[in-house]
Amino acid sequence: MRRLRRRQYDMPGLNTAALPDLIFTVLFFFMIVTHMRTDEMKVEYKVPQGERLERLAHKASVCHIYIGKPIGAPDDSVRIQLNNRLATVEEIAAFVRAERNRMSPEDAERMTVSIKADRDTPMGVIYDVKRALRDVHALNINYSGVGKEEKKEERGERREERE
Question: How many domains does the chain have?
Answer without folding.
Answer: 1
